[in-house]
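[job 4471] stage=fold_predict status=RUNNING
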Amino acid sequence: MQPPNLPTTLVRQPAPAWRSTAYANDKEIPISSADYSGRWYVLYWYPLDFTFVCPTEIRGFQSLLAEFTRDGVAVIGASTDSFFSHQAWFADRKTFPEVITHPVIADTNHSVSRAFGVLKEDQGVAFRATVVVGRPGHRALAQRQRPQRGTQPRRSAAHRAGPPERRAVQRRLAQGTGVRRVSA
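[job 4471] inference complete, writing structure tokens
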């Protein structure tokens, strides 16, 4: 099933306030949109832990973390799995040879996924999605795609997500095969 497009009205609109817990460096931490107030951040979703495609995108975002950090952009992963599921999966060194250091939200009550419109309600899992939130707390761009198709971080997210680079980020999004792009 192809997910419906995210409404174009989401772009340039305030990002919803959210609060959850997350896996970060093998610890359970509280995390919220307030922690990123005034900062750019990329929030990406994947459907479930212990699946075939998801490690590729998580490792991809992790491998680009230094670039994002250098450009002042935080990276946050999310799925509807629990902290304990994340902890067990990320401890598997065959699947994740590099330690996952960026926070990954454990959205077990679905509040973050639902707030951003990426929850597949009938299955209780999130679509694969990426949202870039800009400095004033507004969505700079958003995408959602089929759960079976992995996200390609170099194509789907902002390496340089500042205002001057927004068009370049949108071009990268548009290059991804099967990506549903929301124009600004």
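[job 4471] summary: The chain is about 25% helix and 25% strand.
[job 4471] exit 0
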